[in-house]
Amino acid sequence: MSTPFPADEALVCSARGCRAAAVWALQWNNPRLHDAARRKTWLACAEHRTSLGDFLDVRGFLRAVTPVPGSPTLDV
């Protein structure tokens, strides 16, 4: 099983124009396009975690929010 986050690449937030380090992984799918098991991932910094999550949640797409491996959120 491979890790979804390459260790040799810096992970950055998926919010438009943001270059901050990602600390959250927002797993989602569009049930009209994807089967129930498929998950896509947006990465979020601490500042954009809520806005990106709200965008997906309002549409019924948000499935899970987890800390990015190696992020400071795992130390909390």
Q: What's the oligomerization state?
A: single chain
Rg from alpha-carbon coordinates = 13 Å
Order of helices and strands: EEHE
Q: Would you identify the regions where 5 or more consecutive residues have pLDDT less than 50?
A: none
User: How would you state the average pLDDT, rounded?
Assistant: 86
Number of helix segments?
A: 1
Shape category: globular
Derived from helix and strand composition plus strand pairing, the structural class reads: alpha+beta
- Tell me the number of strands: 3
The percent range for strand residues is 15-25%
List the helices and strands and how they pair.
Elements: E1 24-28, E2 40-44, H1 49-58, E3 62-67
Antiparallel strand pairs: 1-2, 1-3
Report what the structure shows:
- The chain is of the alpha+beta class and 76 residues long.
- Helices cover 13% and strands 21% of the residues.
- The chain has one helix and three strands; from the N terminus they run E-E-H-E.
- It has one helix spanning 49-58, and strands at residues 24-28, 40-44, 62-67.
- The longest helix has 10 residues, at 49-58.
- The model has no long low-confidence stretch (mean pLDDT 86).
Characteristic key phrases:
1 helix, alpha+beta, three-stranded antiparallel β-sheet, 13% helix, 76 residues
Short description:
The chain is built from one helix and three strands, in the order E-E-H-E. It is of the alpha+beta class and 76 residues long.
